[in-house]
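Annual report, structural modelling task.

Input specification for the adenosine-5'-triphosphate complex:
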Amino acid sequence: MTDTTNKDDRHKARQQKLKEQVDARIDAAQQEKGLVLVITGNGKGKSTSGFGMIARAVGHGQHCGVGQFIKGTWDCGERNLLAQHGVNFAVMATGFTWETQNKEADTAAAKETWQQCKAMLADDSYDVVLLDELTYMITYDYIALDDVIEAIEKRPTTQSVIITGRAAHRQLLEIADTVSEVRNVKHAFESGIKARKGIDW
Ligand code: ATP
Ligand code: MG
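The model returned the following structure:
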């Protein structure tokens, strides 16, 4: 037997073992339910991940909703596209929170957007709901954490919810089925490069 044949056989055996392990884990996953996903951390890719899942669901003919907190008044490529495909948007009426410096107006705007999101979370016609940048609303105490947890826990069992934003509250992580933390390795902005249409919004 040549060396190459030996190597091929060993590779085949390893792959076969790996396949058996993966198949066993796929068989073991029997639960079918809507998920809670949290995408957090300081790196770039949280909102784009959330919108990626919305695009995925829309591609399967599913009904989706998006709540956009904080950057509602900004131009948004995903909103421009997905609103044309039946995705319902609840958009916070003020711009960047740290730009407006008006806590009362920001709180009112956040609460108004949250009410629209709550209606989606209570509606079983929605398959997936994205709550983009929701974590900050809790950190700033614009929306009560308990109210968010209750709405998520009471949602229809088939509905999935995605929450994005930095520094997600510990209790959000606890109720989530899937949590991903995007780590910042480097970001173009730190080298003085301007945010780009199509990449950053
Ligand atoms: P994206 O919307 O691109 O997925 P994100 O949701 O992970 O980004 P946010 O914290 O919501 O990030 O910030 C949104 C904007 O800030 C985007 O323009 C993004 O490119 C930029 N950004 C994200 N992470 C960083 C970072 N570590 N340093 C500087 N700018 C960042
Ligand atoms: Mg974001």
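Residues 1-30 form one domain.
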